[in-house]
């Protein structure tokens, strides 16, 4: 086992635009706790690797290909040996003192599975994307019927969502699942769970890991005294591609955790929900752009209803072919 307290891993993919803010926040905190800072790159072609090497404050692992978020994180964690691992997205900026709090909390709670942090917007408001729900059929029904919107605040777990309000200063609080944007875990727990399931190329792997951790008696929590800001989807310039990947993750979660009967039913309800939002949104002032996005997602449903491909990321090729066929 390493003498280092923690290995902080940042997985990059075309992250040149955001990586400096991320590393500027992390480097002094890693030094403070006696850890190592590792940047693992998934085949960027925008100069990310060369730029990080030039900074000199992180160990660089250049994989030379896009292994997906799950695959890249798994390989990076395997290349480290610290008792605590913290994964940080390259477009996330951790507030000062946050890393020390995460490491201390994980060390003092040996049975905890995953520990996330509290995301905030630039103006300090809570960003609800950091706490997630577990996949359930009621959530798919609510999405298809638009009931997920009013029910998110009243019964978030019923609709497969985490709390939409999370006050700071409450210490470590249990939640169903947390975003992988900032994720701390004891190495023994990571190895017990087998890391991320690489069937999840991008999106959904964090919720899947939380679900599996719960089955092993390892709860997931969020540290409300640790804040970070997160741009989200910074490496994707195509909104449709991003949405297809996101819904692939949702479909993969349903198929993986709801079984051979309820899983496909839940995925079908996702399709219904996308279609309904596309149709209704066109009738509402100010919602036409969002409606167009939902309609596009519905029209390209064959690219995501089966979940993630088993080999590589074929999203771009699939969308190109679909658009050509529709032209």
From TrEMBL:
Q: In which pathway does it act?
A: Cell wall biogenesis; cell wall polysaccharide biosynthesis
Gene Ontology MF: a single term: glycosyltransferase activity
The stretch of residues making up the signal peptide is none
Gene3D superfamilies hit by this protein = Spore Coat Polysaccharide Biosynthesis Protein SpsA, Chain A
Transmembrane parts of this sequence: 261-280
Acetylation as a keyword of this entry, yes or no, is no
Name of protein: Glycosyltransferase, GT2 family
